[in-house]
Write a structure and sequence with these properties.
The complex is a heterodimer of chains A (174) and B (85). Chain A has 174 residues and is α+β, with helices and mostly antiparallel strands. Chain A is built from 5 helices and 5 strands. Chain A starts with 8 loop residues before the first helix and ends in a 12-residue tail after the last helix. In chain B, a hairpin with a 2-residue loop joins strand 1 and strand 2. Chain B is globular, with a radius of gyration of 12 Å. The chains are: A alpha+beta (174), B alpha+beta (85).
Chain lengths: 174, 85
């Protein structure tokens, strides 16, 4: 299974820059851009979007340092990009999940998150995202339902027993 | 830290995971159920008797999840952990 797109920051950043390119070109060149202009704009946008602090004003400031002359209209366009990042991530993940179907775990199955050692029971399969809602009891004794990605889960019972950090949930036999 | 500040902090963290962040709180018997949403998708839900504690635990789980899903930078999560009560 290849890497989930949402984990590939460079891919998301590039996709976002490509998505926003037409609007930004319109702001820059009003339809008079050359191929070189397009390439340069895409390169600058990709650099500017390479941040987790998605704020239109801050991204405009980065473009300013690259020699751009941002105004309020550009900040507004860049603010749209901030919202689109989540959508793009979700769209790319759904496309990826569709190519990697079907889900390998099912409801009521006991699984463990490999990264955190959390052990719980699958309450819902979110097939379109290859994710699962898993119920477990946390360290404070409260019931938690949390979304986990398929690729971080295992149903290897031997691994469940060996994992020191595993927190068994009440009423579940391993 | 008052309830309003805790909710603001929770929203600022959730905002990194979703463009449609939402927090819902409901009472079920003697417990409170706090849910953190990305639009219509549930991210984390915690059930327990002390609402602010439950919200804090939901945010802690979300912070761990954000790091493992690489959808928020470490600084964001560090900032949350420094400010949380």
């Amino acid at each position: 299974m290849n890497k989930r797109p949402s984990l590939d920051t460079a891919l998301i950043t590039r996709a976002l820059a490509e998505h926003m390119l037409p609007r930004v070109l319109e702001w820059c060149y009003a339809g008079d851009e050359t191929e070189a202009d397009k390439e340069g704009t895409l390169r600058d946008l990709t650099k500017a979007f390479d941040t987790s602090d998605m704020d239109g004003y801050k991204i405009a400031a980065k473009l300013d340092w690259m020699g751009w002359d941002p105004d309020a209209e550009l900040v507004e366009i860049l603010n749209l990009a901030c919202f689109r990042r989540h959508d793009l991530r979700s769209q790319l993940d759904k496309k990826w999940a569709a190519e990697n179907q079907p889900p390998i775990f099912s409801e009521n199955q006991t699984v463990m998150d490999i990264n955190r050692g959390t052990v719980g029971v699958i309450k819902k399969v979110i097939a379109e995202e290859l994710c699962y809602l898993i119920e477990y009891t946390n360290g404070s004794g409260n019931l938690v339902t949390e979304r986990f990605r398929q690729e971080t889960l295992t149903d290897d019972l031997e691994a469940l027993k060996k994992k020191k950090k595993a927190r068994p949930i009440e009423g579940v036999a391993y | 830290m008052g309830a309003e500040q805790v909710f603001k902090l929770a929203y600022s963290l959730l905002d990194r995971a979703s463009d449609k962040p939402d927090i819902s709180v409901r009472a079920v018997g003697d417990n409170f159920v706090v849910s953190l949403w990305d639009g219509d998708s549930l991210l984390v839900e915690v059930t327990g008797p002390v609402v602010l504690s439950v919200l804090g635990q939901a945010c802690d789980q979300l912070a761990e999840s954000l790091v493992s899903r690489a959808v928020a930078d470490i600084e964001t999560v560090k900032e949350y952990k420094e400010k949380k009560p």
